[in-house]
Design brief:
The protein is α+β, with helices and mostly antiparallel strands and about 800 residues long. Helices cover about 40% and strands about 15% of the residues. The chain has 7 domains: about 55 residues, Helix hairpin bin (Helix Hairpins, Orthogonal Bundle); about 230 residues, DNA ligase/mRNA capping enzyme (D-amino Acid Aminotransferase, Chain A, domain 1), CATH 3.30.470; about 110 residues, OB fold (Dihydrolipoamide Acetyltransferase, E2P), CATH 2.40.50; about 130 residues, DNA polymerase, domain 1 (Orthogonal Bundle); about 80 residues, DNA polymerase, domain 1, CATH 1.10.150; about 100 residues, no CATH class; about 70 residues, 3-Layer(aba) Sandwich (Rossmann fold), CATH 3.40.50.10190. Bound molecules: 2-(butylsulfanyl)adenosine. Its cofactor is Mg(2+); Mn(2+).
């Protein structure tokens, strides 16, 4: 039986209420945004058609959520409004027409401020005489929550306005949001530590801002953009919106540099297109754009409807979240063996792309979300991030589903899947005998930032590995033109017969009969491609009948990659935790592969940027004889490092017994205690052999000495110390003389990085600046030597300008680095 309008309206209100309560009070999302919008529109349409249905406090007339009671309430002197939505060009055209008609102005003369619609949460900031005194969430639009303490931890929000001319009382409104990078970092940490994983940057921002503990807010990085003002007294603002944004920026507020003044419908739609194209590349999520009539007198004349101004509208982008069903859950094996569960989905359009797979991250995440095969889930695709399952719609769960369990064996090689203690990831224990890991390792080795073998795609690698022709990275250097040409024909052929037909014109008559028979015998085999490539079929390429240039180029690219830099080679080896930046650091500090491959892990800790986990991982890699053999094979295959140099003189600082003891992470052995120990023994061998009585002479507490003796007896600890000491002695012999005059060009200088450094990345920039002796600090003060401001730089840049601190952009930094001889 179909529902009556009143039943449907009640049902819609209940559904919307439930979703809104979860969203605003618990930072949880029950249904995707797009679906919420659609349900709300249905309710609004029903209420418009049947005015008698409209309940007094219907959710359709309300803004946002109600206060949770956890914070003090703040009454907004001017309500914080919401925006109407446009989902189509037609709706935008209606919006422009309404304004044009009411103001009696030609459409093409209407100027609009066009802005990104940031996906975070709205807040209002109150400044009295230029000082930040109170900040509140939007709440229901008239009453919000006092989150001043939390807002004070956000670097983008000025505590004190800069410049001059601000009104005595000024309310600034804008969006608190979390950048994609900060969101990913926040979730990566939560996943590793078993903490709460957040569904999307907006939920993360909302959840963070409504933490009761401001210290938690300070740890997670939130950002802010200003886009409007509230109450203004004792002063005046410009009479256009764009002018207002400009003064807000001068007073220290970050304003998005995507804001633009455009004219008429064409201007709006052109802006929508441009921002839509840039959407995936932005540092933060946006869910649409906002158009605001620029002229404030016009805004006044347009006025408001229930919960939104008539002079502004949000033009939404296709939703980044959609509901679909999980058809299967499979395991994917990555380069380091990490087993990642992936949901195979019923195909669904998400933000303009058909999504059929979404990552589930790890077994813990599946357990946390309780994702089961057959479930309806919300998938999210934002920016360049891999689509992911963010939640299960439990109300849609079919009967008779069962919780998902991690399989015990690697689906590719059958080796056991194991989980390291305290870690979220399961790993395939097959290491490089697992074809999946081998393929990933080879693809990584060849990738652009590693050995940069252009043209060696995933499909090639797949068949090369399966055929057994390429078993390790060094085998790439034995690939010849014949193999590549055959490989291409194999990949292009639908089946063996098609391959044979394509190969026929090139077969040498001598063995062709036998070769064809062998090939055709593979007809029924699933892995015919790999087996066909492995067969020794003699060919003489009839050059006119096949394109060969690309194969010559690829052979040349493989050859060219032989001469490489140490940093690239180290990165290419695929050592866990060694990304591009760490590889560069290692190369800068140690200079030589022969040295690096012999060092035990504690020696890597002598480099300031390398911590215990990374150092152990590097040491572990070089401790594996298989890895050493792979390096030997590469060198035998002609790979050579072109930029080897002696280790850095700065390693002098880590020489000696005491720093080495500290680096070995012996429980209870602090810097001071290590120095005391070093004072009573001649060398490491003496320490390892020492009687407790001798160690007690160092003045260390008996418990510490007992702890040390016990540690020395465990596993290979004593051997590690001896090896480390020997390696240190060898390293010491290689170090150039310490030359105090050879101070770094930035010694004693303090540098602050802000904004997005799109070419270099902040981490790399920081590593280089430190390499040249600079201290990289987090906030700008009079003592700051200079600031490096990338795009979207905000309050730190403003502060630097106010204090007269020199500012470089990324180009200047790159140019300066180039002058110092840095090749990036
Ligand atoms: S103006 C009276 N501008 O979108 C106008 N809002 O759906 C009030 N938002 O509550 C808002 N970016 O949280 C405005 N550039 C922008 C915005 C923006 C994001 C959010 C804001 C608002 C919601 C309305």
């Amino acid at each position: 039986m179909s529902q009556t309008p009143i039943q449907r309206a009640t049902q819609l209100r209940e559904q919307l209420e439930r979703a809104a309560e979860a969203y605003y009070n618990r930072d949880e999302q029950l249904i995707p945004d797009a679906e919420y919008d659609a349900l709300l529109r249905e309710l609004e349409a029903l209420e418009a058609e049947h005015p008698q249905l409209k309940a007094e406090d219907s959710i359709s007339g309300r803004i946002g959520g109600r206060a949770s009671g956890r914070f003090a309430e703040v009454t907004h002197a001017l309500p914080m409004l919401s925006l109407g939505n446009a989902f189509s060009e037609g709706e935008v055209a209606d919006f422009v027409r309404r304004i044009s008609e009411r103001l009696d102005l030609a459409e093409c003369d209407l100027a609009f401020s066009a802005e990104p619609k940031l996906d975070g949460l709205a807040i209002s900031l109150r400044y009295e005489d230029g000082v930040f005194v109170q900040g509140a969430t939007r709440g229901d639009g008239s009453t919000g929550e006092d989150v001043t303490a939390n807002l004070r931890t956000i670097g983008d929000i000025p505590q004190q306005l800069t410049g001059s001319g601000w009104p005595a009382l000024l309310e600034v409104r804008g969006e608190v949001y979390m950048s994609r990078a900060d969101f990913e970092a926040c979730n990566a940490q939560a996943r590793a530590s078993g903490g709460k994983v957040l569904a999307n940057p907006r939920n993360a921002a909302a959840g963070t801002l409504r933490q009761l503990d401001a210290r938690v807010v300070a740890q997670r990085r939130l950002s802010f953009f200003a886009y409007a003002t509230g109450v203004v007294e004792g002063g005046q603002l410009p009479d256009t919106h764009a002018g207002t944004l400009a003064v807000l920026q001068r007073w220290g507020f970050p304003v998005s540099d995507l804001c633009q003044v455009v004219h008429g419908l064409d201007g709006l739609l052109g802006y929508y297109q441009r921002i839509g194209q840039a959407r995936d590349r932005l540092a933060f999520d946006i869910d649409g754009v906002v158009y605001k009539l620029d002229d404030k007198a016009g805004q006044q004349a347009m006025g408001f409807v229930a919960r939104a101004p008539r002079w502004a509208i949000a033009h939404k982008f296709p939703a980044q979240e959609q509901t679909t069903t999980v058809e299967d859950i499979e395991i994917q094996i990555g380069r380091t063996g990490a087993a990642t569960p992936v949901a195979r989905l019923a195909p669904v359009q998400v933000a303009g792309v058909v999504v059929t797979n979404a990552t589930l991250h790890n077994a813990d995440q599946i357990a946390r979300l309780d994702v089961r095969i057959g479930d309806s889930v919300i998938v999210r695709r934002a920016g360049d991030v891999i689509p992911e399952v963010v939640s299960v719609r439990l109300e849609l769960r079919p009967p008779a589903t069962t919780p998902w369990l991690m399989p015990q064996a690697c689906p590719v090689c059958g080796a056991e899947l194991v989980r390291e203690e305290g870690m979220a990831v399961w790993r395939c224990s097959g290491e490089l005998s697992c074809p999946a890991q081998r393929k990933e390792a080879i693809a990584h080795f060849a990738s652009r930032k590693a050995m940069d073998i252009d043209g060696l795609g995933e499909k090639f690698i797949e068949v090369l590995v399966d055929s057994g022709l390429v078993r390790s990275v060094a085998d790439l250097y034995a690939i010849d033109r014949d193999t590549l040409l055959k490989l291409k024909l194999i990949l292009d052929a639908a089946d063996v017969e098609a391959y044979v037909a394509a190969l026929q014109p090139h077969l040498l008559p001598l063995n062709s009969g036998q070769a064809l028979a062998q090939l055709l015998a593979l007809s029924a085999a699933d892995d015919w491609r790999a087996r066909a490539l492995a067969l020794p079929v003699q060919v003489a390429w009839a050059d006119k009948k096949i394109a060969t240039r690309w194969a010559d180029n690829l052979v040349a690219a493989i050859d060219a990659s032989r001469r490489t830099t140490l940093a690239r080679l180290l990165f290419a080896l695929g050592i866990e935790h060694v990304g591009e930046a760490t590889a560069k650091t290692l190369a800068q500090w140690f200079g030589d592969l022969e040295l690096i491959r012999q060092l035990p892990w504690p020696l890597f800790k002598q480099v300031p940027d390398i911590g215990g986990e990374v150092a152990r991982s590097i040491g572990h890699f070089f401790d594996q004889s298989g890895n050493q053999a792979a390096i030997d094979a590469l060198l035998a295959g002609g790979v050579s490092v072109t930029d080897a140099h002696p280790p850095s003189a700065r390693l002098h600082a880590g020489l000696g017994l005491a720093p080495l003891l500290v680096a070995c992470e012996i429980p209870g052995i602090t810097q001071k205690r290590a120095e005391a120990l070093a004072a009573v023994v001649a060398d490491m061998a003496a320490l390892v052999d020492a009687e407790p009585a001798q160690l007690l002479a160092s003045g260390l507490p008996a418990t510490v000495v007992a702890g040390l003796t016990q540690w020395l007896e465990q596993g290979d600890n004593a051997a590690l110390l001896l090896r480390a000491a020997q390696a240190q002695a060898r390293l010491a012999a290689l170090l150039p003389e310490e030359d105090p005059s050879a101070a770094g060009p930035l010694d004693g200088q303090t540098v602050v990085l802000t904004g997005t450094l799109s070419r270099l990345g902040r981490e790399t920039a920081k590593a280089w600046l430190e390499q040249f002796g600079a201290k990289v600090a987090g906030s700008v003060s009079k003592k700051t030597s200079f600031v490096i401001a990338g795009s979207e730089a905000g309050s730190k840049l403003a502060k630097a300008q106010e204090l007269g601190v020199p500012v470089w952009d990324e180009e200047q930094l790159l140019a300066w680095l180039a002058q110092q001889g840095v090749v990036l």
